[in-house]
Amino acid sequence: MIDYNIRDYIEKKKCTLMCAGPMSKNFVDAFISYHKKKKFPCMLIASRRQIETKKLNNGYVNNWSTEEFSNYVLKKNNNIILCRDHGGPYQGLSSNSQKSFKTEMQNAKLSFKSDIDSNFKIIHIDPSLNLGKNAFKNSLDRLFELYEFCWSHAKRKKKKIFFEIGTEEQTGSTNTPEELELTLELTKKFCRKNKIPMPLFVVVQSGTLVKEMSNVGTFDLPFRIENQLPAEISVPQMIRICDKYKVMMKAHNCDYLSNIALRSHPYLGIHAINVAPEFGVIESKCLYNTFKSYKLTRLSKKFINLSYTSMKWKKWMKTNSSASVIDKALIAGHYVFSSKEFKNLYQEGKSILRKKKIDLDAIIRNELKRSIERYTLNLGIEG
Questions:
Q1: Has this prediction a pTM greater than 0.85?
Q2: Measured between alpha carbons, how far is 186 from 194 in angstroms, rounded to an integer?
Q3: Residue range 305-353, pLDDT digits in tens
Q4: Most distant CA pair in the chain: distance in Å?
Q5: Helices in the chain by DSSP H: which ranges?
């Protein structure tokens, strides 16, 4: 069973598991290859924007539908655990705040059905967007409706699934223990009443926040922030609450943390972390630098222009940012990987380099594997 395997492995290894976002086809291939002969739990966490049911017009990663993505991954390595990341209303590519709540809930359920039918094993329910007044109550009402829906559908389909709960919102500081305990207590009452298992993971804000190409949260800072407990004090408090309810703690937005910060995660008892945008930036940097190294200037400029003009970098900017045009383009690169324009320039670059006996795919995938390994080693997953 997945829950036993994950809990047992973490307990035996005293490690923190790394769950990775499928930022591109190259990354998915690198992840599959890296984990081919590994004996530890390997989790790919797909947001609705990245991977979506074909009934809602697919996601931006390789234009994959949920069904296509699952088939692709599990045929190559059926030991990989597929997970939905940030499923819920207003979380999809076609979502917007102008759509009715009823429509958004229907779409969320359609997406979750496809996840379960496509052998996703861990379902993250995130009802945190567009909550309006009475945000806490509305969030729990949505959570419990979707929790029961997913569990009932899985039972009908004879599928075994597990849940992750917790909010999307990353502030860069931490939750309060009171807020976490209340959420888990109410979840426990709901689960008991409906005879549904407690979630496997709960997202706890551990003080991480990704902006541009760095982690600007409090977790990795070398100094104290006024009126905020440092992670070495606040996180163990959260862990004790999670242990009380037999739920594992997961931290999101853990990209770009230093090796020292990563090594502190098992020490603090954090069970798992999510990493995603960093892998997209690594691929974009690798592609750009490879084009530059082999004097493919026209293609490197074309890539930068395509990525920059997508404007997808805007959400990642720091206040009063000094990021250059190239920085912004590299931050947003993965959003355009599936566009026709990018595919054409990538194939052109591959063809030119192939004549020089240089494998562009291999260069990028090897760089991504090195990044994956930085996490698996520093988190104590292997080695």
A1: yes
A2: 12
A3: 999 999 999 999 999 999 999 999 999 999 999 999 999 999 999 999 9
A4: 65
A5: 2-13, 25-34, 66-76, 101-117, 135-156, 177-194, 231-244, 259-268, 277-293, 297-309, 325-332, 340-355, 360-378
Nearest to 125 by CA among 187, 174, 73, 58: 187
β partners of residue 19: 43, 274
For residues 353 and 287, membership in a common domain is answered with yes
Task: Please tell me whether residues 272 and 297 are part of one structural domain.
Answer: no
Q: For 147-196, how does the pLDDT look when each residue is reduced to its tens digit (9 = 90+)?
A: 999 999 999 999 999 999 997 564 434 468 898 999 999 999 999 999 99
Residues 109 and 227 in one domain: yes
242 and 297, same domain (yes or no): no
Q: Residue 1: is its pLDDT beyond 50?
A: yes
- Which one of 229, 247, 277 terminates a domain? 277
Count up the domains in the chain and report the number: 2
What is the rounded CA–CA span in Å between residue 4 and residue 114? Answer: 25
User: Is residue 91 domain-shared with residue 222, that is, in the same domain?
Assistant: yes
